[in-house]
Amino acid sequence: MFKVIKYQGRARRGQFSCAHGGMVQTPVFMNVGTQGAIKGGVSAHDLREIGCQIELSNTYHLHLRPGDTVVRKMGGLHRFMDWDGPILTDSGGFQVFSLASLRKIKEEGVTFASHIDGHRIFMGPEESMQIQSNLGSDIAMAFDECVENPATYEYAKASCERTARWLERCAAEHERLNSLADTVNPRQMLFGINQGATFPDLRVWHMDEIAKLNCDGYAIGGLAVGEPADVMYGIIDAVEPHMPQDKPRYLMGVGTPSNIIEAVSRGVDFFDCVMPSRNGRHGKLFTWEGTVNILNRKYETDPSPVSESCGCPCCRSFSRAYLRHLFKADEVLALRLSVLHNLWFYNELMQKLRNALDTGTFDEFREKYSGKLERRA
Ligand SMILES: [Zn+2]
Questions:
Q1: Are residues 343 and 263 in the same domain?
Q2: Element (H, E) at 80
Q3: Using CA atoms, how far apart are residues 333 and 341, in angstroms rounded to an integer?
Q4: 344 contacts 51 by C-beta, under 8 angstroms
Q5: Is there a catalytic annotation at residue 82?
Q6: Is position 113 within any domain?
Q7: Per-position DSSP letters for 327-361, written without gaps between them
Q8: What is the rounded average pLDDT of the residues 55-75?
Q9: If you measure from the C-alpha of residue 363 to the centroid of ligand 1, how many angstroms do you get, rounded to a whole number?
Q10: Cα–Cα distance, 11 to 33 (Å, whole number)
C-alpha cells in the first residue's frame, strides 16, 4: 500500500495505492474540496486536468449538509462528486473545535452546536467513523481533539491522553464497519493523528502510543494554528523519528510552498491546505518567481499571463490584465481561474519536489526555492 522508493537525507520519495485510482506518487499535495467541491467553482473534472492525485473532503461539513446518509444513498462520495481517484476525509475533529460553538467535551465525545443552524450534534470516535464509512472515502482520519494554541501543559496532556484512547475506539469501530456486507468502501484505510500541542515530550509520548495500533498511516495534527514556523519544524523534528518508516506521514493543514519544502526535508509525505484556493479567491497567486497580487494597478494593461512558465488553464489563455479586470468586475470566473492556477502551481511544486528526489537534487531545489517562493515576484 505504501513504499518508500528513495531517500535523500530524511526526505522520502514514495508510492501509495488505495481502493480508487492508480499509484499515487509522493510527496503529494491533496486538493481540498471541503463540501465535495473546490471553492471557486472548480469540479472534480477540473482536478483531473490540473494534476490532482488525491481529493480531500470534510466530514463535519458533509455530515451537516447534505448529510452523510444522503451521500451514501447516492452511492458514496466518489459517485456523488464524480471523482474516481483517492479521497481522504478528515475526522471532523478540527471543525468541531474551530467552527462549532457551545462545545462540551466528555470521554464519550463532543456535543456541539452546528455553525449553520445551531442544532445540537454529538460526535465521538464511533460517529466520526460511521460518517466517514457512509462517505466511502479511501482514507478515514481518526477523531481527535485539536487543542487551542497556546494550551497549558496540563490541558494538552489530558487531551492527548484522551485522543490516544479515542484512537483505540476509532480502530475498533473502523474494523467493524469495513467488515459489514453493505459497507460503501470495505478497503477504507485509517490514519492516526499525533497531538500534544507545542510540547515535544507530549508529542513523542503520544506518537509512541498510537504507533502501537498499527494504523495505515500517521498524521501530525494541531500545527499551523498560529505558532511560528520554527516551532512547527521543531515539533516535526521531535516526532518524525518516532513515526513508523514504512507508513505514510501526513502533515495536516500545511501550508505555504516553503513550509511544504521544509516538511518534505523532514520526512513528510502527504499535505493539504486551503491556502492555494483561499489565496486565489483573493487574487493572491503563487508563481515560480514569487507571489503576485493580481489586483495591483501595475497589471491593468499587462498582456502577459500570470506566469510565463505555467501551463494551467488560466495562463494558457488569459492575460494578467484580463484576470485583474474579472476581479474588479466581480466576475465569478476570476475566482475559478485563480484557484485553478494556484492548485496547478501546488501540484506542479510536488511534481518538481519528486523529480528533485528522483535525481538526487533535492538539497539544491530546497536552497533555490524555499525562500524565494515566499517573497513577492
Ligand atoms: Zn497558471
A1: no
A2: helix 77-81
A3: 12
A4: yes
A5: no
A6: no
A7: HHTT-HHHHHHHHHHHHHHHHHHHHHHHHHHHTT-
A8: 97
A9: 26
A10: 27
Evaluate if residue 144 carries a pLDDT over 90: yes
pLDDT band with cut points at 50, 70 and 90 for residue 368? very high
Strands 87-89 and 139-141: parallel
Tell me how far the alpha carbon of residue 179 lies from the centroid of ligand 1, in angstroms.
44
Task: Say which amino acid occupies 355.
Answer: N
The CA 326 to ligand 1 mean position distance, Å, reads 16
Q: Which domain holds residue 62?
A: 2-95+122-273
Number of other residues whose CB lies within 10 A of the CB of residue 373: 21
Same domain, residue pair 255 and 168: yes
Residue 149 pLDDT:
86
Distance CA 363, CA 372 (A): 15
Q: Model's pTM, two decimal places? A: 0.97
- Give the closest residue to 42 by CA, choosing from 339, 310, 324: 339
- Which residues contact residue 375 at a Cβ distance below 8 angstroms, ignoring those fewer than 6 apart? 290, 291
Three-state DSSP string of 2-44:
EEEEEEECCEEEEEECCCCCCCEEECEEEEECCCCCECCCECH
| C-alpha cell belonging to residue 253 | 493543514
